[in-house]
UniProtKB/TrEMBL annotation:
Domain HTH gntR-type: 13-80
Signal peptide: none
Alphabetically ordered keywords of this record: DNA-binding, Transcription, Transcription regulation
Keyword ATP-binding recorded: no
SMART domains named among the record's database cross-references: FCD, HTH_GNTR
GO MF annotation list: DNA binding; DNA-binding transcription factor activity
Identification of the protein by name: FadR family transcriptional regulator
InterPro entries for this protein: GntR_C, TF_FadR/GntR_C, Tscrpt_reg_HTH_GntR, WH-like_DNA-bd_sf, WH_DNA-bd_sf
Length: 234
């Protein structure tokens, strides 16, 4: 099953990367639905790419869980539950296509299982550099004068720094998943006329516990931060 469409390469971008973005966009916006087979000769013509380029694009999207191939079906779109949302590109495409409130709820559950534990580890393992990064995020938050855009950036910097301060290589990588969703949620709050509750105090409480190497305090303070955020932006 195929769908028609147009494709205009962006100046300065390689054909390969632009084609990956275009095909991913079509998958996420439903142009190609779950289970749809892609007719490769038609796609080559629509996207104005060679067979070699299209094969490489399919390979990339296959590794990210969006596509699969078989002798019987050719290249087809995999079910949504098999898409690799932990891949930063896939997450970017998902957010760009729009997400529902239950998506943010799922990510909040993920954050509640990761960020308090990361804060507790940070209280054990933080370095002077880690504290400096956390303090810098707090200073930006305090100096934002309730400028929403600056608050969003400071919040993203804080949560990135806290995950890195855990000095656990897996928790540190989770900022690639958590922070883009956090930014998207905050931007959607702004776009709908929502307001931000002053976040400085609850963030500062986490940093203070980390500074004092208070493992339990860091865990509970981060949990409280997430609960405050959830109540403010349901």
């Amino acid at each position: 099953m195929s769908r028609s469409g147009t494709h205009t390469p962006h100046p300065g971008h390689g054909v390969h990367s632009v084609t990956v973005e275009e095909l991913a966009k079509r998958i996420f916006n439903g142009t190609y639905g779950e289970g749809d087979s892609l007719v490769m000769p038609e796609l080559m013509k629509e996207l104005d790419v060679s067979q070699t380029v299209l094969r490489e694009v399919v390979r990339v999207l296959t590794t990210k869980g969006l596509l699969d191939t078989s002798q019987q079906r050719g290249t087809f779109v995999r079910p949504r539950e098999e898409w690799n949302l932990l891949d930063s590109d896939v997450l970017h495409w998902k957010l760009a296509a729009g997400v529902s409130s239950d998506f943010f709820a799922d990510v909040l559950e993920l954050r509640r299982s990761i960020e308090p534990a990361a804060a507790a580890l940070a209280a054990e393992r933080r370095t002077d550099h880690d504290l400096a990064e956390l303090d810098a995020a707090l200073r930006t938050m305090a100096a934002s004068d309730n400028d929403p855009a600056r608050l969003v950036r400071a919040d993203a910097s804080f949560h990135t720094a806290m995950l890195i301060a855990s000095n656990n290589r897996f928790y540190a990588q989770m900022h690639r998943v958590i922070v883009p969703v956090l930014v998207q949620r905050d931007q959607e709050v702004l776009s709908t006329g929502g307001e931000f509750v002053d976040p400085h105090a609850v963030h500062a409480a986490v940093v203070e516990a980390v500074r004092n190497r208070d493992v339990d305090g860091a865990y509970m303070s981060m949990l409280e931060l997430l609960d405050v955020s959830a109540r403010a932006h349901p």
